[in-house]
Automatic annotation (TrEMBL):
Ribosomal protein recorded as keyword: no
InterPro entries hit by this protein: Aromatic_deC, PyrdxlP-dep_de-COase, PyrdxlP-dep_Trfase, PyrdxlP-dep_Trfase_major
Pfam families: Pyridoxal_deC
Sequence similarity: Belongs to the group II decarboxylase family.
Protein name, as recorded: Pyridoxal-dependent decarboxylase
Cofactor: pyridoxal 5'-phosphate
Ranges in coiled-coil conformation: none
Organism classification: Bacteria, Pseudomonadati, Pseudomonadota, Gammaproteobacteria, Candidatus Competibacteraceae
Keyword tags: Decarboxylase, Lyase, Pyridoxal phosphate
Organism: Candidatus Competibacter phosphatis
Length: 505
């Protein structure tokens, strides 16, 4: 039977079915999708359909084959990357917006919440002196901030880089701990990835002020334009926070744009034990934060804040199009509007690189309306406490070693044994076996040349039990691997088969 594209079915009933399937998913009783791909892949890997099957059958396939075989990111024991499954409030808000306000523009309630929620977010994070715009994630958020910095640096020497192109050599200063999207942003903005000059870090992964001063002095002597200093308010690697106040003093002394990447760590300011680490934030020219990290939004919500949004407009404005600007009365103040189509509202499309963009403000609004600042503070404190809990265990247990004191909710530690000479390889194999058990799912990183297990606690559903399970799993698997090694009579080069692993120590 021919199915018309306009036939949508009973939305309420269908959403109820999908919601029940998602509730079941959140019990996390299902296997990893790689283990079951022989079941779902053949049912999904079909030819392009010439005739549709209808919305009811599509819903059934969503429930049967997709939802149970989704990502482990939402699991409470997932502590690998700095992302998480969206909370219920995030899901409800984004679902509502996808139908009721599929674009963030026009004079609607959703458009109103874009600016309102940006103000809430800035106030909560103590950057109320800045103006914001939402984007899809930290990659774009950093790009927008550095685009404003580029515009600022060149306008100071009488040049408009967005209109006329980039001329001359510029420099961005960032440590190797800065997120790699900084280099990509430099490439996209036309200043080149090599324009990002690395600044040394101390043993804790924080920017060395003396090296920053030295490098800036060298570049000034060479006639290079210092464009921006990028400081970290919580690195993705270890959660380190650069000395923001000291960096801000250098930036002000030289008239250099100060950008603070707080994509992950900026909400850490809510933990009063950590607030002092953010001194200097008030001097930033731009700051980013990703609500889809620590605040519980589903992936696709980031925010860039700058002192003056007109810099963003000059950096990213699009040329007018008759079908857009000509279709509304933008010259009339919005209070005189008689229809939501009379005005686009705040022109966010001129403050970034997205014309089409979903309503993201409603997600942040829903998150904060649900639990408020104090609820967010409690979550941040809980996650930081989980990192401290793991750190305390690593200090006390003879088979664990703490590699770096936690700053925020990341803890870097490893399993150790006197019977194993290659601890990096041991922990690498331990990590792979840990992941394949599909309960405790941290990532790894390098800390001063040592491979570390690196849980980052930020999921709204992650509790004390999950930190304790991680510790128990690491100790159990580590002991098993060392026992296998000793039983096979090798300490260096023989291979030990360990499930799907080959353990070569």
């Amino acid at each position: 039977m021919h199915r018309d594209a306009a036939e949508t079915g009973d939305l309420q009933a269908l959403l109820a079915q999908v919601g029940a399937a998602l509730d079941q998913f959140l019990r996390f009783e299902h296997a990893d999708p790689v283990r079951t791909n022989h079941e779902w892949r053949p049912r999904l890997d079909t030819a392009l359909p010439l005739q549709g099957i209808g919305i009811e059958q599509v819903t059934d396939e969503l429930i049967t084959y997709l939802i149970p075989n989704g990502s482990p990111v939402a699991k409470p024991g997932f502590t690998s990357f700095i992302t998480t499954g969206g909370t219920t409030a995030s899901t409800l808000a984004s679902t509502a917006a996808s139908i009721a306000a599929p674009q963030r523009y026009l004079l609607t309630a959703f458009n109103f919440l874009e600016e309102l929620s940006l103000g809430w977010l800035a106030s909560m994070c103590s950057i109320g002196h800045l103006q914001g715009v939402y984007s899809s994630g930290g990659s774009v958020a950093n790009l927008l901030a550095l685009g404003a910095a580029r515009q600022h640096a060149f306008e100071k020497v009488g040049h408009d880089p967005a209109a006329a192109g980039v001329h001359g050599r510029v420099r961005v200063y960032a440590t190797r701990e800065a997120h790699h999207t900084i280099q990509r942003a430099a490439g996209v903005l036309g200043i080149g990835r090599r324009a990002v000059r690395p600044i040394a870090c101390d043993a804790g992964g924080r920017m060395e002020i003396a090296d920053l001063r030295r490098v800036i002095a060298e570049d000034r002597q060479a006639g290079v334009i210092p464009m921006a200093i990028v400081a970290n308010a919580g690195t993705t690697n270890t959660g380190a926070i650069d000395p923001l106040l000291a960096i801000s003093e250098v930036a002000r002394e030289h008239g250099i744009w100060l950008h603070i990447d707080g994509a992950y760590g900026l909400p850490g300011i809510l933990d009063e034990r950590k607030t002092h680490l953010y001194r200097g934030l008030e001097h930033a020219d731009s700051v980013i934060v990703d609500p889809h990290k620590w605040l519980g939004a589903a992936v696709g919500v980031a925010a860039t804040f700058v002192r003056d949004r007109e810099l963003l407009r000059r950096a990213f404005t699009q040329e007018p199009a008759d079908y857009l600007e000509g279709a509304v009365h933008q010259d009339a103040p919005s209070p005189t509007a008689e229809h939501s189509l009379d005005d686009f509202g705040i022109p966010y499309f001129d403050y970034g690189i997205e014309l089409s963009a979903p309503s993201r403000g409603v997600v942040v609004w829903a998150l904060l309306r649900e639990i408020g600042v104090e609820g967010m503070r409690a979550r941040i404190v809980r996650h930081n406490d989980l990192a401290l809990r793991v750190a305390d265990a690593a200090r006390e247990h003879p088979n664990l070693e703490l590699l770096l004191e936690p700053t925020l909710s990341i803890c870097c530690f490893r399993y150790v044994s006197p019977d194993v000479p290659n601890l990096n390889r041991l922990n690498q194999n331990l990590h792979r076996r840990l992941v394949r058990e599909n309960r405790s799912l941290p990532s790894t990183t390098q800390v001063n040349g040592k491979l570390a297990l690196r849980p980052c606690f930020l999921g709204a559903r992650t509790e004390v039990t999950h930190a304790d399970e991680l510790l128990a799993d690491v100790l159990r698997i580590g002991a098993e691997l060392v026992s296998e090694l000793v039983a096979n009579g090798t300490k260096s080069s023989e291979n030990i088969q360990s499930g799907h692993n080959t353990l070569n120590l």
